[in-house]
Amino acid sequence: MPTRSTSVAIIGAGIGGLTLAVALRRRGIEAAVYEQVAELREVGAAVALSANGTHVLHRLGLRDRLAAASAVPTELVYRGWRGGERVVSYPVGDDYTARFGAPYYGVHRADLQTALAEACGQDALRLDHRLIDLVAKGEGYELEFANGTTARADLVVGADGVHSAVRRWVADAEPALYSGTSGFRGLIPVGSMPSLPDPGALQFWMGPGAHVLHYPIGDGSFVNFLAVVDEPSEWSSPSWVEEISAERLCAPFAEWHPGVGEMVAATGLHKRWALFGQAPLNRWHRNGIVLLGDAVHAMLPHHGQGANQTIEDAATLASLLHRYEPHQALPRYEHLRRARTRAIQRSSWVASELLHLPDGPSAEDRNRRLADVHRTLQWIHEHDAEAAASA
């Protein structure tokens, strides 16, 4: 156990930053979250929480809150793009919970963020605090913010996403990498998609140069979808999101199954997001500054693991800081998390290519190999981050 109390400043009030704050405060460690926006707001429509994430959130006291706000998919289904034929399917629901010890949830991101913020406590949340500098002061840091305020902390955690401001104090990293793909999303009432088969399932539609992922959220009356296309070849916008017409959004899916056409046409969110990743970092911490989540291992969304790996990071770091002094905890954290997140990160890039294969022998071979996709689920979803940190 640490011989003195440690104060922690967390930069970023996303899922990872808030989960870390809740986990630390439940262990009696002082933690404050600094967020640059003036109010917490939705970024992205929904989150898929697999067992490796829900295990952690249940232990933080959010079991009932999550169950009330989430939908449990009935199946995992992979489908062909034009005819909608089932390539392979696996039960989810109670079978998944029995296998992995925790449920698979579809939850609105705003509901999850609100639940975490309330569990964290308003006294720990500092909005409208954009970090501009870190200055070493004794054994800790003074944090300077754009609003003119300062704060002190022994340990600083960068949980501020793929375009992390904190990362420059830890590692010399290349800018985030554009994947050559972009995505758009929406929350669609089930009644708006009469041709969509099995709206209660988690489904991947695979096709040439594109794929669509969707799953139910909340009470199951809405479906969250993400459509990904192999365009544009380069991303020139200074922002990672840009306005786009409804016609351009729908065009890549004009010949797809009618259910997919109904889905993408129903979105009122006419924006597309550039899908960025991050080259793996060899260094996760330096002199009491440490990175978490997308700030250190941004990955493409094709395994639904971005939020879940951030939650795993938070659980691991909180457990280690409870047991060790920071100078001991941070190397252990990096050692425990780097290989696993790197493997999932790499797998998410491979999945992007496989989901977008044109019809032909390569796609047929992929479809045969999907019969073993449960093994991918096994090593990702069965992981218990807190148990690994305590081993």
From TrEMBL:
Keywords: FAD, Flavoprotein, Membrane, Monooxygenase, Oxidoreductase, Transmembrane, Transmembrane helix
InterPro entries per UniProt: FAD-bd (IPR002938), FAD-dep_Monooxygenase_BioMet (IPR050493), FAD/NAD-bd_sf (IPR036188)
Keyword Transmembrane helix: yes
Xref: SUPFAM superfamilies: FAD-linked reductases, C-terminal domain (SSF54373), FAD/NAD(P)-binding domain (SSF51905)
Presence of the UniProt keyword Lipid biosynthesis in the record: no
Cofactor(s) listed: FAD
Domain annotation FAD-binding: ranges: 6-346
Any one Gene Ontology molecular-function term assigned to this protein's record: FAD binding
Positions of transmembrane segments: 6-24
Protein name as annotated: FAD-dependent monooxygenase
Source organism (scientific name): Saccharopolyspora karakumensis
